[in-house]
Amino acid sequence: MKAALKTEDGRFSIEDVEKPEIPNPDWVLVRIRVTGICGTDLRHWKKAEPQLTHKIMGHELAGEVVEVGSNVTKVKPGDRVVVETLLGDGTCEWCQVQQYNLCPNLYKVRMETVSRSFAEFLMAPAEKLHLLPEHVSFEEAALLDTFSVSMHAIQLSGIKLNDVVAVIGAGPIGLGQLQLAKLSGAEVIIVDMVDSSLAMAKELGADLVINSKNDDPVKKVMEYTNGKGVDIAFECAGGQSMPQTLPQAVALTSIGGKVVIVGGFDEGEIAIPLEWQHIQKSEINIIPSASYSFWGIQSEMKMCLDLLAKGKLNAKKMITHSFNLDEINKAFETAEDKEGSGAIFVALKV
């Protein structure tokens, strides 16, 4: 099959590699139709990472079932599906209660199986597949991984009707956070540095947008909330911006409020000074949010798929660019240059 393999300098090379085979009777083979580039992928872009060299990456995808194991009854060849790309070892205590996002072996397992979408085919357990309604396109479905990350953060936040919420970062996850917060009955403030991303946030229902290059977000938020601050701040920028955005999230949160950390950190120890006395005296609750899994008895991805299918989540508007897999390096350049390209979600057609 054709696949994009990570090179020594952190770009991609299109090569022919062996097509995966179904390893177990309850697994399936999926022909990938669309995959997406997310913030996590961009943090690996142009980085020399020996452990990832010559590996297939990617974890936001939708496609068609082409082959099923002998025990599979949930799906059949020809079915249009979205694939959950979070797969733990299946044996730890967290996996046993469907909190596989917390599995200590999550990344080791998923990187060898379901998180390999920059290619033509992918193998996955049948339980990780969700059938797509005919009116939901592959491109829209590829955003469900992103929406699911935002859904998990929403659940952890305990958001309530009439809450005032700030979302820092207007990338795909931040815009997903915005839509879910609006569905929950909250007012939503969006903070970002890219005008095109803020314009998109306004189109998707943001009550106030703030360009942090031009205005002080804390001052603007305090003016909007009459000095109180927001009930919940979602940090959705992540990566290298964390030393600025996480203290910012704390500063614009009200007494007794919550800061939910959604954006991803880079590996290793990272020193981020915070006003810990203020956090303690104000009883600000800092809540880390990791990927997604089940909430109670419901798959968070299936919850997002239902909302998307009912027209309550808008994925179509967020898809700003589309490339073929052969153009993956150009696609990454476009996704990285948000200010110049206006990119939000960049889709790769396989």
From TrEMBL:
Q: Which cofactor does it need?
A: Zn(2+)
Record keyword DNA repair present: no
Secreted in keyword set: no
What keywords does the record list, in alphabetical order? Answer: Metal-binding, Oxidoreductase, Zinc
PANTHER family named among the record's database cross-references: L-THREONINE 3-DEHYDROGENASE
Tell me which family the UniProt entry assigns to this protein: Belongs to the zinc-containing alcohol dehydrogenase family.
Name of the featured protein: Galactitol-1-phosphate 5-dehydrogenase
User: Which source organism?
Assistant: Mucilaginibacter defluvii
Biological classification of the source: Bacteria, Pseudomonadati, Bacteroidota, Sphingobacteriia, Sphingobacteriales
